[in-house]
Amino acid sequence: MPAFLRPLHHFAWRHPDRRARLLLRFAEVEADGGRDLVRAAELTSDARLRLLFLRHALDEQRHADLFRQRGLEIVRSRPRAAGKRSAEWMAPGERGLDDVRVDEEPEAALLAFLHLSERDAARQFDDYSSVLASDPATQAVFQKVVRDEAFHMTYTHQQLVRLAPTDHRRVLWRARLRRLWKLYLRLAGGLAALIGGVVLSLIYYLLLPPFALAAKHAAKREAPGWTAAAAVPDGTLDREY
């Protein structure tokens, strides 16, 4: 783990309530990834790949159960507290298959995406485990998951080389570029939301008060109550306005 990331990981996992939310979020991602892998197993015509996808899906569901169980244990052990600021951006976990459409991807591209995703997840979960010495139960969950991620990372690369023996490097590079583009879009969206919040706050606190004061000052010059309207010259109303 880079030294500059360790304080961020310590902060993300330090508070039990935040730790529980992160674990429950990881459970959702793992379960969703398992469902997509089952769909990938249905679509492939390769018997070996189908078996591996189904085993991978079972592992993802088991990970989801581990994360959910540990997250709920922490929730039950804590008094109900007010909502605290999320730290998911500091501990993104595994991306699952949210960045790829299983029904539309060639098998080689899907394997490349899975390989990169599992490799990053193994590194991240190992980093999280290293800062959870104060919570051995949660640390043990990550250590169990990391062992499976290492197998997933290995089999996806082996099957990619088998299916695309001459093009697997190009397919991996294309997957890396797609992941970088998706990361840029997520960062750009987050930055746009941050800038929008700052701009709206400046408008609310700097631009609106002068108008509110001017309106209040003008209201003081207005006579209270109803104001009599001018009489119609001929005493009749012969038009709409």
Order of helices and strands: HHHHHH
**Cα distance spanning the termini:** 75 Å
- Counting copies of identical and different chains, the oligomeric state is single chain
Q: If you compute it from the alpha carbons, what radius of gyration comes out, rounded to the nearest whole angstrom?
A: 28 Å
Please count the beta strands (DSSP E, at least 2 residues each).
Answer: 0
Computed structural class: mainly alpha
Taking pLDDT < 50 over at least 5 consecutive residues as the criterion, the unreliable ranges are 85-91
Provide the residue-averaged pLDDT. Answer: 83
Strand content: under 5%
Number of DSSP helices? 6
Helix content: over 70%
Largest sheet: none
Rough outline: elongated
General description of the model:
Helices cover 72% and strands 0% of the residues. The radius of gyration is 28 Å and the shape is elongated. The relative contact order is 0.10. It is an all-alpha fold and 241 residues long. The chain contains 6 helices and no strands. Helix 2 (16-43) runs antiparallel to helix 3 and helix 3 runs antiparallel to helix 5. The N and C termini lie far apart (75 Å).
